[in-house]
Design goal:
By secondary structure, the protein is α/β, with parallel strands linked by helices. It has one domain: Alpha-Beta Complex (Spore Coat Polysaccharide Biosynthesis Protein SpsA, Chain A). It contains 7 helices and 11 strands. It has helices spanning 35-46, 61-70, 86-95, 115-128, 168-177, 186-192, 212-229; strands at 6-11, 29-30, 33-34, 51-56, 78-81, 102-107, 130-136, 141-145, 148-152, 158-167, 199-201. The longest helix is centred in the C-terminal third of the chain and has 18 residues, at 212-229. The protein is globular. 36% of the residues are buried.
Length: 230
């Protein structure tokens, strides 16, 4: 079977609210470089042939261009203006894809995704239509209902990450068919459109940088991955 074109829609529309920073979290530094650049580099390390579409708020476009100049960042990518919600931003990113293939939708603030995980996501999506990164829960969990709580079997649950990778035709048609209401991620869009969702084993290193303590953890993961590549 011929190799299918691989795309990446990287969505980076976050603010600095939970990070308690005036700088949007995707532009905060890890290892001396904006973490969003690490995210794009992860796809490039997997394959320079991946077509990367970066979705940013219009207000952040000039800042991103300036950062690329300051850091001599030259990894090829197409910029797309995002919408008011993640759903709208992903849909706009998908609109930049003209043709068939496979597309990984990824959070811009997950900079530590590994090439092996990306490779697995594309391979499995080619077979099953979808491939969504997930990890097992480490902690016990309980359901709460007003004043009562109940323990549940954590083995039945998974924490969902990105990339969430799909056959292009499948996910584009799903976004056209499903409304935004109640949508939390791309797998939910595909599922509401009637598709089964296939999971694959993600990585605990593939954290989402959201709160201040994540930056400390991120620096440690960054140092570890750099050492492993050397």
């Amino acid at each position: 079977m011929a190799q299918q074109q691989e795309y990446a829609v990287v969505v980076a529309g976050g603010s600095g609210t939970r990070m308690k920073s005036e700088i949007p979290k995707q532009f905060l530094p890890i290892g001396g470089q904006p973490l969003l650049m690490h995210t794009l580099e992860a796809f490039y390390r997997y394959s320079p042939e991946v077509i990367i579409i970066l979705v940013l708020p219009e207000a952040d476009m000039d800042r991103w261009k300036q950062l690329c100049t300051e850091h001599n960042f030259t990894i090829p990518h197409t910029r797309q203006t995002g919408g008011k919600s993640r759903y709208q931003s992903v849909r706009r990113g998908l609109d930049k894809i003209h043709g068939d293939g496979l597309v990984a939708v990824h959070d811009g603030v997950r900079p530590f995704i590994l090439p092996d995980s990306l490779g697995a996501s594309y391979r499995l999506a080619a077979i099953h239509g979808s491939a969504v990164a997930s990890v097992r829960l480490k902690d016990s969990i309980r359901i709460t209902d007003k004043d009562t709580t109940k323990a549940v079997d954590r083995s039945q649950f998974r924490l969902i990450q990105t990339p969430q990778t799909f056959q292009v035709k499948l996910i584009k048609e799903a976004y056209e068919a499903v409304s935004e209401e109640g949508i939390t991620d791309d797998a939910s869009v595909a599922e509401k459109a009637g598709h089964r969702i296939s999971l694959f084993e993600g990585s605990y290193e593939n954290i989402k940088i959201t709160t201040p303590e994540d930056l400390y953890i991120g620096e440690a993961i960054f140092s570890k991955q750099i050492a492993e590549r050397e």
